[in-house]
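Running this now, will post back.
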Amino acid sequence: MSASATGQLSPRAQEIAAAARELLEQEGPDGLSMRKVAGKLGIQAPSLYKHLPDKQALESAVISMGFEEQAGVFAQCLAADDPLRAMTIAYRSYALAHPHLYRLMTERPLHRDQLAPGAEQRAAAPLLEATGDADLARAVWAFAHGMTILELNGRFPEDADLDAAWERGLKAFREMTNPAC
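Update: finished.
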């Protein structure tokens, strides 16, 4: 079975997910096949199903890994003088460094029931703490995601000053959280 009674992946399932993550980073979505993952591990593809029931479970395990990484990075941002700015910089940097993982995490419906328990919440918690409001946190995330995915997809004109656009967006959100800014 892929997960224990607590929903945690077995060590072997974690190893499989790590191999899948490496292939995703190297080859993009085409690298995330059960056959390629099995090949990377030196086993037959049917052996994977002893640990993860299907490709969706594999993808969910990889997404959970991404959320856990983001949780750690975002939590560190809370110590910054401007946590909201630090988090948006970290969010953008993470996506640009891991575009295939970022797309896997954000472009399709999220199968929350297959994620590591609490992974999504841990990734979101620092933003919620920085904004103090769930709706505002969602709005900031939507802004950051929109800016990021448009940048990844090459949708901004070449002469666009993206750093200025990010700063203007952050200024608007800061004014919502602290009207004295």
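Confidence is low (pLDDT under 50) at residues 1-6. More later if anyone needs it.
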